[in-house]
Amino acid sequence: ETVMAGLDKTQRRHTMHGAPLWARAATIFAGPAFNFLFSILVFTAFIGVQGLPDDTPRLGAVYPMPGVNDLREGDVITAIGGSPVADLADFYTLAAEAEPAATLTYAITRDGVVQEVQGPHPLPARAAGIALNSAARDAGMLMGDVVLAVNEQPVFAFSQLPPLVSAANGEAVALRIWREGAEIDLQLTPRRTDLPSADGGFETRWLIGLQSGTFFDHPTRRAGPLELVPLAVAEMGKIITQSFSGLYHMVTGAISTCNLSGPVGIATTSAEMAADGLASFIWFIAVLSTAVGMLNLFPIPILDGGHLVFHAYEALVGRPPSDRVMGALMTLGLVLLGALMLFALGNDLFC
To answer: If we measure between CA atoms, which residue out of 112, 70, 103, 24 comes closest to residue 307?
Structure first.
């Protein structure tokens, strides 16, 4: 107060205590806003570089696969197993409905000629992605590995994997995989995992950590800012929604509190993402930036959200909370935040 008393009106305006309420609130909100803006810029750049899938069911690069595969880059799929394919949405609908089989019949257009060829299931048991902290990653599985069998049961489609893994009920499963023409036997122990469900909740399943995909790359098209920015905002919104849903379900006991990671877990995940490549690491930083911005807006004293609550109180009452109340609330906020950090660190060490 002594320092403020020695300042004139113009000098006071350039201090946090002397600025108008709206300016103080805007300054506080600027931190989380930058977190969100950074995430949106990164997501926009990634989607812009990767492009959006072309609606035509045209094959890009065809990945190496075991068995018969007569499809080539540039082929346009017009039917799967006799069912017509009009666009990419049709392709994925039929792909999900196709019965698992070693080979399927595809009608294609190649160089203007309509013909039928043989190829693998459109959604094969191929590792299009490998989840972090998963049994598959720890066992040494690589992108592009194709699962041929689970516990001696032949596998032709990715849809066969979840029930076979789930049937093991947490016991180790024996996988035979195909990698660059060689067959390799691995043993993995599925991990109990809480996954977001379509209804906004969570479901608990036994997983090995593989992500599905097609046996070919999808050609993409360029997208303009009017498409990219809404998609980036939607991606950030999905992260925030799932984070709130996860916190709610942890508090209610619907899912394990081990889903909350602390500094060790974040550092470990950062290292794994960095090992996957610079692009994966930058994407993870953008996701983390969204999470930090969201956490900072929690109405906890000492966080930005807590300060915004104080400003809202001042706007309603006409004066800020007393120094005594502010001190007590700040101490409470510090205790709550410290307890949360210790709890998350405990998860890192013992979960």
So the answer is: 24
Would you state the pLDDT for residue 308?
94
User: Which residues is 106 bridged to in the sheet?
Assistant: 80, 117
Average pLDDT over every residue of 252-276: 84
Looking at the predicted structure, is the pLDDT value of residue 182 above 70? yes
**How many CB atoms neighbour CB 244 within 10 A?**
12
End-to-end C-alpha distance for the chain, whole angstroms: 49
- Distance, CA of 211 to CA of 193 (rounded, Å): 14
Give the residue-averaged pLDDT of 215-220: 92
Pairwise CA distance, residues 297 & 229, whole Å: 23
Residue among 178, 167, 160 at smallest CA distance from 123: 160
d(CA 39, CA 238): 12
Q: Is the pTM of this model over 0.85?
A: no
Residues 349, 344: Cα–Cα separation, whole Å: 9
Report CA torsion sign: 18, 23, 25, 29. Answer: negative
Instruction: Give the tokens for residue 129.
Output: 């992605």
Q: What phi and psi, each to the nearest 5 degrees, are found at residue 188?
A: -125, 145
The pLDDT value given to residue 195: 73
| pLDDT one-digit tens code per residue, 303-330 | 999 999 999 999 999 888 988 998 999 9
The sign of the torsion formed by the CA atoms of 348, 265, 306, 255 equals: negative
